[in-house]
Write a structure and sequence with these properties.
Elements lengths: L4 E5 L6 E7 L3 E4 L2 H12 L7 H4 L4 E5 L1 E2 L2 E3 L3 E6 L32 H8 L5 H7 L4 H16 L4 E9 L2 E2 L7 H9 L8 H16 L6 E8 L15 H10 L4 E6 L17 E3 L11 E3 L7 E2 L2 E2 L4 E7 L10 E3 L6 E3 L10 H24 L4 H16 L2
Antiparallel strand pairs: 1-2, 2-7, 3-6, 4-7, 5-6, 8-9, 8-10, 10-16, 11-16, 12-13, 14-15, 17-18
Bound molecules: ligand EPS.
Ligand EPS binds next to helix 5.
Amino acid sequence: MDILRFLTAGESHGKSLSVIIEGLPAGILLQPEDIDRDLRRRQVSYGRGGRMEIEDDKVEIIAGVRWGKTLGAPLCLVISNKDWVNWQAKMSIKEEDKDEALLVTRPRPGHADLAGALKYNQKDARNILERSSARETAARVAVGAVCKTFLQAFGISFYSYTKSIGGIEADYTGMPFIEIVSRSENSELRCADEEAEKKMKSRIDEAKHKGDTLGGTAEIVVIGLPPGLGSHVHWDRKLDGRIAQSLMSIQAVKGVEIGLGFESAHRFGSQVHDEIFYETPSGDKRLWGFFHKSNNAGGIEGGITNGESLVIRCAMKPISTLMKPLKSVDLVSKEPVEAAVERSDVCRVPSLAVIGESAVAFEIARAFLEKFGGDSIEDIRSHYHHYVERLKNF
Ligand code: EPS
């Protein structure tokens, strides 16, 4: 049995999204605001469509928390869809509300519409697209926020920002990390490079004007990780593999890189591997003695965290709903048609950054519980401190 797991339910225009998270210890200080903060970060950005003017995501904690702390019981979270009021008949669970005029039969290239329709034997692609929609990522961000709250108690923190949109790269060379983070948090595109941000915005405007869409890349950084999360001994215990799976499962993500990633394939080994140094641990400055001066590995070696920061990038393809639609074939008539058009976003790379951060937070929390597991936060803290002491005296 997995030590930490979650399931989400909910259609994009259904009544709400729900999540059950199972395996959290008792004693995590948790308030709805801890989750709402990240829900807000996921929602707002330049390039999003009309839906975001309707939604104002807030979580309701239905179960698993009492008097401000988790109980060790399953946590149940619900995020309501404000747009549901406009979709009650179209998304009704009652057979008598079925309306043939509403069927979506023109699958969008790049979307789950066609593959899902074939697999689930559906002539109405709405029965597929409602669940494949990236609306579901709100639930995943809620999960990530809970995991981040838990990990914060151990000095582990998560950051994310936009690296590129539509081929325009942000240049963060020489910018202190703290500045990258604070500027990104205040940018409409989560981009700390103001020049690049301006170009990205006009590229988004251009795409919108042409009825087109854009993708891009986001970087996720995790600071404060101890060495030793994940394992080299089995394929499914390697933390890099698990993080990649988690990120690749985010709607529209087509690639994941850790550290130097694809670039490392072009270099000599001497230009890739991070040399090892040692300084006697002292106070809070360095909890363990071994360290690297470079971080091309991105914080993971052999599927195990090595004590450096985790640095991950993921790439998102352009959104597949185009206002100027591509060629498709009608699911019923089999005639050539233009793909279905419905309200959508032009670009959502900034939200990918926050969703990616959340997906990584879940995997880190899972690996953390595997290593230091206990039923209460106090037990976990004592396992963690015992381990850090052992590393100091290694
Ligand atoms: C999405 C289409 C749009 C996005 C949606 C994902 O929704 P709608 O069809 O209602 O305009 O806004 O994303 C969200 C609702 C969200 O919360 O991120 C899609 O087809 O994937």
